[in-house]
Amino acid sequence: MSRIVAYIPDDMVVTSQLSPYSCNDVMAKNISEDVRSDTPREVDQTIDDDRPDIIKKNALSVEIMKYANVKQQTLRQKRQRMKVASCIAQGFKDYCFQLPEHSLHIVGSTMNGYGEPKSDLDLCMHLRVETLSRDQTIECLGHLKRIAKHIPCVDDAEVRHSRVPILHMKLKPPYTHIAVDININNVVTVQNTYMLWLFSKFDWRVSVLVSIVKSWAAVRNFNSASQNTFSSYSLVLMTIHYLQVGVSPPILPSMKNLIANCTQEELLWTVLNTDSIADLVIGFFDYYGNNFNYNEDAISVLHGKKLSRLEVIKGTKNLAQWQCICIQEPFNYTNAAYAVYNEHIFSEIKKELRATHQQLVTNYDLRETLRISTNEYRKIMKTKPVSIARRNADLELQRKYVAIHHREYFLPTNLWIPSSTEFVSDVENRLVSSLFKSDEGDARKQSSKNMERVLYSFVELDKDRYSEIVRNGRG
C-alpha cells in the first residue's frame, strides 16, 4: 500500500504577496506617499547623504519586502509540485510490489514555508522496516529507479551516492523546471520540515529574512553543501537562532519554550519586537559577522540560545564535522553545517558577512547586497503591496490551529515512535478531516475555515483506521 501525505502551509489558501511596509510604527508613518499609493512605483535609490538613517531604512524595507514577494513560491508553483508528487506516488503505488509497506512524504522547501520558485521537490519514502543499511538503501533506490521509467511525468532518474543517498529525477514537460529528490527513511527531514513550517507562522518577518539570507548566500556560492558551504536548512536554522537570540525582545521562542507554553487554545507566545525588516537584515549580518564567537559557541534552536561548543560536541563520534561552525540539529543533535569544515572557505564566508554588514549600514542598498541587475530590480519594484495586517490575521489563524492539534507531537523525543510495523505521520494522524482540494478554485476566495487547513493528502485515510490511531496514541 502506498500513501502520500503532507502538511501544507496556509499561504497555499491565502495570498502569497507580501507588504513592503515595516511593522515598525515609526517607520510606517514616514514611508513616502509614493510607496503608499495604489500604483507601485520604483523606489528612488539616490537618497541624499544628509537625510536621516530612518528614511534610508524605510526605503530598504520597501525593497526587501518586494524582493521577498518575488522570490517566494506562489500558489501555482506549489500546486505544480503537488501534482508531480501525486503522479510519482501513484507510480510507486502501482509498481512497488517488491518493497515493504511504505508511505511517501513531501518535505523540504515546498512544505516548510521558505520555498522559492526554483526549489526542488523533496520527498521522503518511509519503509516500515526496523533498520536499513546504506547498501540496502541504495538497493531500494535502484529498485525505485527502475520503477521511475513507468511513471508518466518522469523523464530520467539516477541514484546519487551522497551523504544521504537519493534518487534524483528529471521530469517531462511541462515540469522540466522541477527537479525531484527522494530519500529513504531519512525521517528527520519530515521532522524538521514541520518544525521550520511552524516557526515561519509566528511572524511574517521570519520567511522574509530567510529569503534575503538564502539569496545572499546564493549569489556568493555559499549555498552548496557539496562545495563545503551551507545547505539551505543550515541557513534557515541560523536565521531562526538569530531571531531567538540576536534581537531584543526575541521574535521566536526556543523549541522547548514553544512546547511548554502551548495550550489547547493558543500558542502563548506574543511577539513584542517591532524592529523593521531592514533592521533585522542589517542585524543578521552584524550578529554573524561581528558578534558570534565561532570558536566557543554553538547554535541551538532547540534551547533557543548559544551553547558551549564543548557541551554540544561532547559524546559525538565524528569530531571533524564540528570544525568551523556548530549548528545543532534539534532532532538528532548532529551538526547541520557539517559540510562547512574547510577553514579557508569559512574564513571567506565570515569576511563576506562583515563586508555585507558594513555595506548595508553605509549605503542601505539591497541591489548591491544581493547583486541584483537593473532590469530585475525594476521588475521587483513593480510588485503590488498587500497590507501587513492581512498577513498577521492569516498567521493568527494558523498559530491557533497548530496549537490545538500539534502540541503533544512537537517534542523531538516523541514526534516519531520507532516501530517495525507502523509509521504514522503527525499530520496524517491528527488532521485527516482537513483535506485541501487543489481544484476548489481561487484560494483567495476560500472561507476562513478553509484558511485553517494544513493538510494535503492524495489518499484519504480510512476513518475507522484514524479512530483506532487516536485511541491508541502513537501506535
From TrEMBL:
What residues does the Poly(A) RNA polymerase mitochondrial-like central palm domain cover?
60-200
Family annotation (SUPFAM superfamilies): Nucleotidyltransferase, PAP/OAS1 substrate-binding domain
Q: Give the main location.
A: cytoplasm
Keyword presence, Membrane:
no
UniProt-annotated location(s): Cytoplasm
Limits of the PAP-associated domain:
276-335
Q: Read off the CDD domains from this record.
A: NT_PAP_TUTase
- InterPro entries to which the protein is assigned, alphabetical: MTPAP-like_central (IPR054708), NT_sf (IPR043519), PAP_assoc (IPR002058)
- Provide a GO biological process annotation: RNA 3'-end processing
Q: Give any GO molecular function from the UniProt entry.
A: metal ion binding
- Which UniProt key words apply to this protein? Cytoplasm, Magnesium, Metal-binding, Transferase
Q: Which cofactor does it need?
A: Mn(2+); Mg(2+)
> What family name appears in the similarity comment?
Belongs to the DNA polymerase type-B-like family. GLD2 subfamily.
Q: Matching PANTHER family, A to Z? A: POLY A POLYMERASE CID PAP -RELATED, POLY(A) RNA POLYMERASE GLD2
Q: What is the protein name given in its UniProt record?
A: PAP-associated domain-containing protein
